[in-house]
Amino acid sequence: MKQSTLKQIVRRLRPYMGWLILTAAAAIVTVAGQLMVPYFVGKAIDGLAYSVSEAGKRAIDFGYLYRQFILIAVCIAAAVAGQFVLSLTNNRVAYHALAALRRDAFAKIGVLPLSYIDSRAYGDISSVIMSDAEQFSDGLLLGFTQLFTGAATIVGVLIMMFLIRWEVALVVLLVTPLSLFAAKIIASRTYKMFRAQAEARAEQTAFADEMIAGLKVVKAYIHEDENEERFGALNETLRKKSLSALFLSSTTNPVTRFVNSVVYALVALVGAFLAIASAGSAVPFTAGALTTFLSYSNQYTKPFNEISEVIAEFQNALACAARLFALIDEPSQSSDEGLPDLGRAAGEVCVENVSFSYSPDRTLIEGMNFRAEAGKRIAIVGPTGCGKTTLINLLMRFYDVGEGAIYVDGKDIRTVTRRSLRENFGMVLQETWLKEATVRENLCMGNPSCSEEDMEKAARASHVHGAIMRLPNGYDTVLGEEGSLSEGQKQLLCIARAMLCRPTMLILDEATSNIDTRTEQLVQDAFARLMEGRTCFVVAHRLSTIQNSDLILVMKAGNIVEQGTHAELLARDGFYAELYRAQFAEV
Question: How far apart are CA 363 and CA 343, in angstroms?
Fold first, then answer.
């Protein structure tokens, strides 16, 4: 899993190869400037220790010292400039990669089958796109900084130390693998822990999102204490998994620091003996050289310390990246590429031998058959869970049928593009959905080119114009910020939105459930006028609203058990008659 994730990260960074090369170059400049500072400091120390005047007396050669100080200043300036460019390019790569990942993840949601969305908590999906992507970007940014500067520092220091004195450099090189070995052992065990932490965080986010969305219901049923207990349990699980992952990963730094301290002590010890032994020789190991070596040993071990510090962050980033890539790589719905458009449909719908199930072990709809003539009103009734909404999902091709076929104007809906099919449908659901935008933008969502007159006409026909005009800025009011509508008014707005599309077919799934009886009658009259000559599917529990339908489909346990007009079904005295009598028993 980890290797696969790393490969995908590398593949996604290829478009930024130019910036990565610039990052590497900036890292080399930064490290070169930092490495030359100790070298010139050592030269300056030797200049102080061994300056001799022409008279044979000891004297400080200030000209030599000034030259060393100027060179030190130049190196520091180069290191600062390199660090600036390094930070700039690192941030550009990390945040561009983050933006691209989030864009791909969000775009993926649009092409995922609804079965994927329906089977997962919305908060979990949101957590992947927002939280996991952010964690990945932070780890990538930190990892790049340490990768380029650390690698350049290690290589540069080794070269400088071998050029100055290979014996001392060999001591450093032989002891260093202990630090790498310890870091690798710990890192190999932290990945699974950070993946478990990411999953626990997503579960907690999903629960919080669900409870905030249903806060009114929670308060109505006095469920706050139970929710607090549940959230506390999730929080405790996240705490334990976070502590386990961070505790193990945090042991890397003390271990590597111990090894680095050993390296420093050995360099000081070996260097001191070498300086004493080489005194008076042709190539003495001077005090300045020893100072340079001690500084280099710190610089050499520093990248290992820094890398050990970011191992936890990098492992967390890998775990988050794995969840992101899992979403992006999820199989998409079947492609519409190459399929023709349906065009403007007349509205004739034919369902032939359709079977469907959400899970293989439980059939929901089996052998369904009916024909809806163009321009007719079709009502779908039945008890809860009988498959009414599932039939609507199949008509809109949110799900594909398991067996059989659905035809619109004689064309199998699987042989035309989903977009062209859905352009022929207007849909109003029981659950209203309005985006955070102006009333105008919400109304014109399905028909952006509509005129002001058409928009107002649709609003008046659905009896929501008055409520809109009472908002602070009328049709230009931003819903959720400047004004709000009641649930019933929101549903009326959704009905106006569907009217404005002027589709050839209309689906109303309990569309008048939040409207009072008087307004409902007015809306039904408006639909009768505006939807004249259009095929209309109405899912309803209140049988009083569908008595004038041209065809009533009575569903039970996934099957159409009866179909006909209101009068025909009552005359049969079957299941529909039972439902009708149950609703109007008092009358």
Answer: 33
- Reduced to 3 states (helix: H, G, I; strand: E, B; else coil), residue 484 is coil
Is the dihedral angle over the CA atoms 14, 16, 22, 27 positive or is it negative?
Answer: negative
User: What is the pTM for the complete model shown?
Assistant: 0.66
3-class secondary-structure state, position 546: coil
- Report the alpha-carbon distance of residue 500 to residue 457 in Å, rounded: 9
Is the separation of the CB atoms in 161 and 169 below 8 Å?
yes
* Same domain (yes/no): 323, 424: no
Residue 470, SS3 per DSSP: coil
User: In the chain, what's the furthest Cα-to-Cα distance?
Assistant: 132
| Nearest-angstrom CA–CA distance, 129 and 327 | 9
Rounded to an integer, what distance in angstroms lies between the CA atom of residue 483 and that of residue 520? 24
Q: Are residues 312 and 354 in the same domain?
A: no
Tell me the three state secondary structure of residue 556.
Answer: strand
Q: How many structural domains compose the chain?
A: 2
DSSP-derived pairing of the beta strands 349-356 and 403-408 = antiparallel
| Stated length of the chain | 587
Question: Distance between CA 573 and CA 130 in Å, rounded?
Answer: 56
Site of tokens 């405790």: 236
Please indicate, yes or no, if residue 433 is contained in any of the structural domains: yes
Q: Which helix (H) or strand (E) holds 408?
A: strand 403-408
CB atoms within 10 A of CB 49: 11
Tens-digit pLDDT profile for residues 478-537 = 887 667 787 778 888 888 888 888 888 988 887 666 566 666 676 666 666 666 778 888
Is residue 259 in a domain? yes
- 567 is written with which tokens? 């009068």
C-beta atoms surrounding 293 within 10 Å: 30
Residues 15, 105, single domain; the answer is yes
Q: Which residue has the tokens 């002001």?
A: 452
